[in-house]
Amino acid sequence: MARSRGSKIELTAYDDLFQTDESREEAALSKIRDIPISEIDEFPDHPFKVLMNEDMEQLVESVKRNGVMTPATVRLKEDGRYELISGHRRKKACELAGLETLKCEVKELTRDEAIIVMVESNLQRSVILPSEKAFAYKMRLEAMKRQGQRSDLTSSPMATKLQSGRSDAELGELVGESKDQIRRYIRLTELVPEILQMVDDRQIAFRPAVEISYLSEEQQYTLLEAMSYNDATPSLAQAIKMKKFMQDGKLTDEVISSIMEEEKPNQKEKPAFRDERITKLIPKSVPRGQEADFVVKALEFYNRHLQRNKAHER
């Protein structure tokens, strides 16, 4: 029986009909599909934090109503499980929403290509902590340098060969930072966790933190104690001074304490109280150095209140 001219052979359906299970699985690697969350592993040493804040609450509600609108990106590992490259917040939102699968796009990527994609996708966030930039830049720069040593990665812009001396400049151009700023951020990875957290919390300024990063781990912990005792963080001048003493081999515990006890222009006097029972009752709006005045006025007011009560009782 002759086939009419208007009819068409559906090659895709024909191919699907004779595909083996293995070939179907291989074809699916390039498609977007739902993957059980239990089969997805976190990216090793992922530098970006998944914060449980108001934005996450809104994302969870959105996932409950509409599902995941933008697929996460994963790659298939040798053990048959998946590695999450981008979409860590979406994965967490799905878990909190009670979903068992995550909509993903599976990509075939090498370890270094995965690092580059992971960093690029997360640098699109509106808010990025200094520690996140620090470790992200470090991971990406190392990946770019390794790619520059290979000859089989010249087919895409991500795989451009790089001379090691130019890598930080190349990275700076890609992320919109100067090569010196890239180096400063990467220096933050040398900070002990407690001081790095203070940088994220904006308790220590960026530039002093870079100078502090040159101190040894032991010296940084000594500095941490001195900061706690003096209830102050080092200025840029103080941080540079400590670095200079360290380079000269003269940065002792006593020197660190002495530098931190120096009076700074914006620090007229040290806090009058260290007892948490008192400090937690002092409003944050009270200027530094005026805590004692506030407490005295509060006590005067309280004494007047007691005197009025006694007068009424007579």
UniProtKB/TrEMBL annotation:
Residues 150-166 have a biased composition (Polar residues). Residues 33-123 form the ParB-like N-terminal domain. The keyword Transmembrane helix does not apply. Keywords: Chromosome partition. It comes from the Bacteria. SMART domains: ParB (SM00470). The keyword Phosphoprotein does not apply. GO terms for cellular component: chromosome. GO terms for molecular function: DNA binding. Residues 147-167 are annotated as: Disordered. GO terms for biological process: chromosome segregation; positive regulation of sporulation resulting in formation of a cellular spore. Gene3D superfamilies: 1.10.10.2830, 3.90.1530.30. It holds the Pfam family HTH_ParB. NCBIfam families: parB_part. PANTHER family: CHROMOSOME-PARTITIONING PROTEIN PARB-RELATED. Belongs to the ParB family. This is ParB/RepB/Spo0J family partition protein.
